[in-house]
Design brief:
The complex is a heterodimer of chains A (333) and B (649). Chain A contains 13 helices and 7 strands. Chain A is α/β, with parallel strands linked by helices and 333 residues long. The chains are: A alpha/beta (333), B mainly alpha (649).
Chain lengths: 333, 649
């Protein structure tokens, strides 16, 4: 049964606390490696890396508000190449969804892998992240800021990458361990959700975790409700601008067939498009599109400026919703 | 990153904390009983005065009458008896007359005068009719009683007596009168009780909520917006749901009677923008009532995009005219900023130009979006001293973005620096250590950015020593003076008009006589005038120019009309048909017949400059900062020039 526990911030910053907890988990679970977003020397932004030593967690920065690519394909590669190893994978919500979709599509067994995820605090467009972080000497400053404002569900959403402004699922469900941040006063504590109660003992966390006071839980619930309400409102607003050529899978297929820019972009950036498109290379049909949409995790990597002005991301999100929920408008759900 | 902790005890220069309740009593007497703001307008003021005092006397008198019955009190009240009773009768009679007169004035105003800002709803007429019927029934009841009893002191009830004589002349016999008395009396009592019963359901509510709003309002100066305390842990940023307003604000919304004075003085409403503070508060009041009826929260209860138009908070210039006018002391500007905070910080659904302006402030440290290298070339031209940490100066010139980056502003800034040099002042600037004061960001709802910039400036200011700061931009001036104390700032700050007036008073600047055809008018900046009561120093400075002809615009000083540039408006796209600066220019040019507008705030300077150019009036009118005008009257100063001679680019 799923349980939620509270971990106090002791080290002054929530990021340090998470690193400490990750080290603890690593040791107790006897992990052989952890795939996590990490700062490497000379790189302007943290990247997904497979750490082999828990000490390297000092450079891990899973909450950095930037996403150059969806890390799920690299994580899946690591797991597929070393099926015998006991690895951990820490990903943001949309990447975690991509990971399980990819694992299903490629028949990769995830049972030996420890899945760790966290509430996504949204990311900046890459170029914005670059100039913001260039202004500061502290490379983790933007992470700290994002964590500070988790209590309100984030601040200044107009700065986020477009896909994050429209994301109604920043809190993943399918991981073993999940760091809850949205609506949580991260300067005081974090919430950790565990898929099974016994995980706390197995991961050596029982000493570090406490019961969650009801007001903390209530606050998180209120903030999540509000977040969902206004993101759905933003979604509805963005969809109200789609025309007929942008609201059916057939129309999307037609566009992808004639627009090589969009096709190339999706092939290069979407973690699942390639599989759907290549799998049916002989005859691409609307079913190809439907498969793709079913696997879509909403990571927003397909968002780019199409030379023909086609709002690829908005269309994909809209159609995915349609397919999933059987509705045309998120407000009606 | 650290953020500023707000200092709840900090309060700008004027006032001080004092005893809250003593202050509250004073507010109650001045604003709720004496109703000074209602009386600012003659016709509605007198009208309201008649109804208010008429009703107050009548209600007190009726209570006095009621307690005479042994039913209520175990002993007898000695008042009013004998002579005093006659006086009591007279006063009560006149009070009834006052009500009728006041109500008739109100009905005439609603039916015939119909001022543009006044809307009539069913409850407005309901209340007026009720207030008319109650005293008429009272007089009828009194008249038939006087006629039937025919007492010796009937002359002490002049109106009732007159009515009795009229009824008698009309053929009413005392017997019939006596039989009618019961009907009139009970009708009078019933309508009186109906009045009491109507209190919570009509605008009569303001009898209770009005004084409550007045005495409960925060002592905070209106020039300082409420800070978001502990911004990183606050659960909500801004207001998206009516319940997120503070309870004091909710009471104040409930006190609104839609008198429309705010709309009448609002530059946005006047210029035809789809915004009216009266409608905004009216809508918020409706939301208060709706949420009371069905307190369920959620998307259905949202204000912006629900009951309010998403665009509505972006038309306000935060000029504060409505706040200064409202008899109920409702803080319309505060409400607008809370709504903006919600859009900017929480949902992100801001107009493109708002996002653009905020990005520029964040990226470049100034709303012009220009790199630091472009700042104030005149500082080095004139060889001004730039302070390094640890340095000391007498006067610190806090230049401000407009004087740093804008071309018109740079001319004015250079003129000011020359005057200060002339006056022999020891002054210096912070140079690149000075960033935008954050006023624009704060009023666009970006409280976080404002706090970050305030922190940066306060760090720079505390690294040097100075006697006082001179801030020539009205927005910097007001922010440093009234808002930085929220974060622990303690320094003396003056505006350049104060400093120039001081130099002139002390005879440290000598001016030549005016030799040109300039007919000047001084435009009061909202952030100097209404927010900081700086009306006289600029006028004194102007009048010290020998022979300079100066006229006032129809709306001046506390009633001055905004230039349209405040509250971030300078950075927003506006409909060309509803430009506020065009209206104000027309006032200066057509109504006051001035050919030169003098400003003391760079935003006003830029807005007028823009209006003059876009209306093609460059040959006939001009705008100058007060420093530029004064410098032109100093022997070797720059030539002030004829209109149109100097390029306005």
């Amino acid at each position: 049964m799923k349980v939620v526990r509270l971990a106090k911030i002791r080290e002054g910053s929530p990021l340090q606390t998470v690193r400490r907890l990750l080290r603890q988990i690593w040791r107790s679970a006897n992990l052989e490696g952890l795939f996590v977003t990490t700062w490497t020397k000379g790189s302007p932004a943290p990247e997904g890396s497979l750490l082999k030593d828990p000490q390297a967690l000092n450079q891990a920065d899973p909450f950095a508000p930037v996403m150059r690519s969806n890390l799920a394909p690299s994580a899946i590669d690591v797991i597929r190449r070393h099926p015998e190893h006991h690895y951990g994978v820490m990903l943001r919500a949309c990447e975690m969804r991509s990971l399980s979709n990819l694992a299903a599509a490629q028949r990769v067994n995830l049972t030996r892998t420890l899945l760790i995820s966290m509430d996504c605090l949204a990311v900046f467009p890459t170029e914005d992240f670059d100039w913001l972080s260039a202004k500061s000497n502290d490379k983790e400053q933007l992470t700290h800021r994002a964590l500070h404002f988790a209590a309100q569900g984030g601040i200044l959403p107009s700065r986020y990458q477009r896909s994050c402004q429209l994301c109604t699922r920043p809190y993943p469900q399918q991981s073993d361990i999940h760091f809850q941040l949205l609506g949580v006063e991260t300067s005081k504590h974090l919430l950790i959700s565990l898929q099974e109660e016994h995980l706390a003992t197995r991961l050596g966390l029982e000493g570090a975790l406490e019961e969650v006071p009801p007001e903390v839980e209530a606050r998180r619930r209120r903030v999540l409700e509000k977040l969902e309400a206004w993101r759905k409102h933003t979604l509805a607003y963005s969809w109200s601008h789609l025309d007929e050529s942008q609201s059916t899978p057939e129309a999307l297929l037609a566009h992808l067939e004639q627009c090589s820019s969009c096709r190339k972009h999706a092939l290069g950036h979407c973690p699942v498009f390639r599989h759907a498109w290549k799998a049916s290379l002989t005859s691409v049909t609307v079913d190809t599109i439907r498969d793709w949409l079913r696997w879509c995790a909403g990571c927003g990597m397909c968002d780019f400026e199409c030379p023909e002005g086609y709002p690829l991301f908005a269309v994909v999100t809209h159609l995915r919703y349609q397919l999933e929920e059987g509705v045309t408008h998120p407000i009606q759900t | 990153m650290t953020t500023l902790s707000t200092n709840p005890n900090a309060h700008p220069g004027r006032g001080g904390q004092g005893r809250r309740w003593l202050w509250g009593i004073r507010q109650f007497v001045v604003h709720a009983i004496a109703q000074d703001r209602v009386l600012k307008r003659i016709y509605p003021g007198v009208m309201h005065l008649l109804i208010f005092w008429g009703m107050t006397i009548q209600i007190l008198g009726t209570v006095l009458n009621l307690v005479q019955y042994p039913l209520f009190l175990p002993f007898e009240i000695p008042f009013p008896k004998e002579q005093a009773y006659l006086g009591f009768e007279l006063v009560m009679d006149l009070a009834g007359g006052m009500i009728i007169l006041g109500v008739l004035m109100a009905m005439f105003r609603r039916a015939v005068l119909r001022p543009k800002y006044l809307v009539s709803r069913w409850e407005d007429w309901y209340v007026l009719v009720l207030l008319l019927v109650i005293p008429i029934l009272g007089f009828l009841s009194e008249a038939v009683r006087l006629q039937a009893a025919d007492t010796a002191w009937r002359a002490w009830s002049p109106i009732g007596n007159l009515l009795a004589s009229a009824l008698a002349a009309g053929g009413l016999t005392p017997t019939i009168g006596a039989s009618l008395h019961a009907y009139f009396f009970w009708a009078h009592v019933s309508t009186g009780l109906l009045f009491v019963a109507s209190l919570p359901f009509t605008k009569l509510r303001h009898l209770v909520t009005g004084p409550l709003s007045i005495v409960s309002r925060p002592k905070r100066d209106p020039a300082a917006l409420k800070a978001i305390d502990d911004i990183e842990n606050a659960e909500t940023l801004g207001v998206g749901d009516i319940g997120e307003f503070e309870s004091q604000a909710l009471v104040s919304f409930d006190a609104c009677v839609q008198c429309g004075r705010c709309e009448d003085v609002c530059p946005a409403s006047f210029s035809g923008m789809p915004y009216s503070p009266r409608e905004l508060i009216g809508s918020l009041q409706d939301s208060v009532h709706t949420s009371l009826a069905s307190p369920a929260k959620g998307a259905s209860n949202r204000l912006l995009g629900g009951t309010l138009d998403m665009e509505s908070p972006w038309h306000c210039t935060t000029c504060g005219a409505c706040v200064a006018e409202c008899p109920m002391f409702i803080d319309q500007v505060g409400a607008v900023v809370e709504l903006r905070r919600y859009l900017t910080l929480t949902t992100g659904e801001v107009p493109g130009s708002v996002g653009e302006a905020l990005t520029q402030i964040e990226r470049r440290g100034n709303p012009w979006g220009l790199p630091k290298e472009n700042r104030s070339p005149w500082v080095s031209d004139l060889g001004l001293r730039v302070l390094q940490p640890g340095d000391e100066t007498d006067v610190l010139l806090f230049v401000g973005c407009a004087y740093n980056y804008d071309s018109a502003g740079q001319r004015a800034g250079k003129a000011l620096a020359k005057l200060l040099q002339r006056g022999g002042l020891e002054f210096a600037t912070l140079g690149p250590a000075e960033v935008c004061c954050g006023e624009t960001a704060r009023r666009l709802g970006h409280e976080y950015l404002f706090q970050v910039m305030a922190e940066e400036n306060l760090a720079a200011l505390s690294s040097v020593r100075f006697e006082r700061i001179v801030a020539p931009c009205a927005h910097c001036y007001s922010t440093l003076r009234n808002e930085y104390p929220q974060f622990g700032a303690e320094f003396k700050i003056v505006h350049h008009t104060e400093l120039l007036a001081e130099l002139l008073d002390e005879g440290r600047l000598e001016l030549n006589g005016a030799a040109d055809d300039a007919l000047v008018t001084y435009h009061d900046s909202c952030y100097l005038g209404r927010y900081n009561q700086l009306y006289d120093p600029p006028r004194r400075a102007l009048d010290s120019v020998p022979g300079l002809r100066r006229v006032e615009m129809p709306r001046n000083r506390a009633n001055a009309f905004c230039c349209g540039g405040g509250g971030g408006q300078m950075w927003l796209e506006t409909d060309p048909n509803t430009r506020i600066n065009h209206r104000r220019l027309a006032e200066a040019f057509d109504q006051a017949n001035a050919n030169t507008v003098i400003t003391a705030c760079p935003y006003c300077l830029i807005m007028f400059d823009d209006a003059i150019r876009s209306k093609g009036l460059v040959d006939r009118t001009r705008v100058k900062d007060i420093a530029e005008l004064l410098l032109a009257h100093i022997g070797d100063g720059v030539d002030f020039g004829k209109p149109g001679r100097e390029s306005l680019v």
